[in-house]
Amino acid sequence: QVAPSVRFTFSEEFGEKPGTFWEGKLVAALRELGADKVFDTTLAADLTIMEEATELIQRIRNKNNLPLLTSCCPSWVLFVEKYFPEFIPNLSTCKSPQQMLGALVKTFWAKKEKIDPAQIVSVSIMPCTSKKFEADRREMRSSKHKDVDLVLTVQELARFLRKKKIDPSK
User: In the chain, fewer beta carbons within 10 Å around the N or the C end?
Assistant: First the structure.
């Protein structure tokens, strides 16, 4: 899966102007590396927003754990957990888009495609190293397997492509 920002920052690693849209070249490079499917994390971002809205409505109706605090940044969540544990009940229970899509791939999509989730290696291309920590959290195993097996930053992906002599610009 690819985070939305990556399609605009990936090209900079190969000398393009900042903000150059390279979604097609990025997908082609991932396919060249051996990816069977490339999913867009934007789908899960939309699902996360819908889940959070539902959660907020329930909390307002039940008048508990307000305000609802949410962030897709694992460092922010960890900050609250470590330094403001009294606000843990206020944290949204929704997974971030990265983790939600990882869970969907290894549950819903795996079942639809008749693939054993143990045979799926779910890789995320993300803008931040904190997503590595998030993927390793013990609660991120909806399919009884890690929802996201490996997280690469844009820079790590670029280094890997260079090592494999794959030039996305071509």
Answer: C
